[in-house]
């Protein structure tokens, strides 16, 4: 579906059928959440966010949950407001508690820290994202794009801090 957007409708129908047959399990709700994120359905994303955040014990799909945090950061970037910053932070830290080696979580945390102007934490998160992305042998297109963006953001952070040689190294 990342390559052919029309596939998302097939996914929605399949998930709806499965929910009708097996009920609203966390696994199926996480898949629906991923669908709603990828199709940019903010209202449904927020409803599922509230559902999952309200659960003390959660069998977490950390990749989707991390993507949820990133989606909320993106919403704030699009509007120029920090409407979802607190939720994004909480979600991303909860994802880290489950899997501290998932590069996307660190990547989205770095984006969050930049948007909240916590540049020291941004640099730490970028370093962790860079290391974690580097451990993945076969990155998909989305992961590769985020890895490249991580390197670019490291260059921007170094330049912002007057570390011009390090910035040049990252840009190269």
Commentary on this structure:
The protein has nine helices and no strands. By secondary structure, it is mainly α. The longest helix has 20 residues, at 141-160.
Could you provide a short overview of the structure?
With 172 residues, the protein is mostly helical. The chain has 9 helices and no strands.
Annotation keywords:
single chain; 172 residues; mainly alpha; 9 helices; 76% helix; globular
In terms of topology, how is this protein built?
Layout: H1 7-22, H2 26-38, H3 42-53, H4 62-79, H5 85-98, H6 103-115, H7 119-134, H8 141-160, H9 164-171
Helix pairs in contact: 1-2, 2-3, 2-4, 4-5, 4-6, 5-6, 6-7, 7-8, 8-9
What percent strand? Answer: under 5%
Q: Overall pLDDT, averaged?
A: 93
**Counted beta strands:** 0
- Structural class given helices, strands, pairing? mainly alpha
* Largest β sheet strand count, sense and barrel closure: none
Q: Work out the helicity level.
A: over 70%
Radius of gyration: 17 Å
Low-confidence stretches: none
């Amino acid at each position: 579906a990342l390559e052919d957007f029309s596939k998302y409708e097939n996914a929605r129908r399949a998930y709806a059928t499965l929910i009708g047959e097996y009920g609203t399990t966390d696994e199926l709700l996480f898949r629906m959440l991923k669908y709603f994120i990828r199709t940019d359905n903010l209202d449904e994303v927020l409803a599922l966010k509230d559902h999952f955040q309200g659960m003390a014990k959660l069998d977490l799909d950390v990749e989707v949950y991390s993507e949820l945090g990133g989606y909320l950061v993106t919403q704030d970037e699009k509007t120029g407001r920090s409407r979802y910053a607190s939720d994004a932070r909480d979600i991303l830290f909860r994802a880290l508690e489950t899997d501290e080696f998932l590069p996307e979580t660190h990547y989205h945390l770095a984006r969050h820290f930049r948007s909240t102007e916590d540049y020291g934490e941004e640099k730490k998160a970028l370093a962790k994202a860079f290391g974690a992305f580097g451990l993945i042998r076969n990155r998909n297109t989305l992961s590769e794009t985020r890895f490249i963006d991580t390197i670019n953001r490291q260059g921007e952070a170094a330049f912002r801090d007057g570390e011009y040689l390090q910035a040049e190294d990252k840009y190269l």
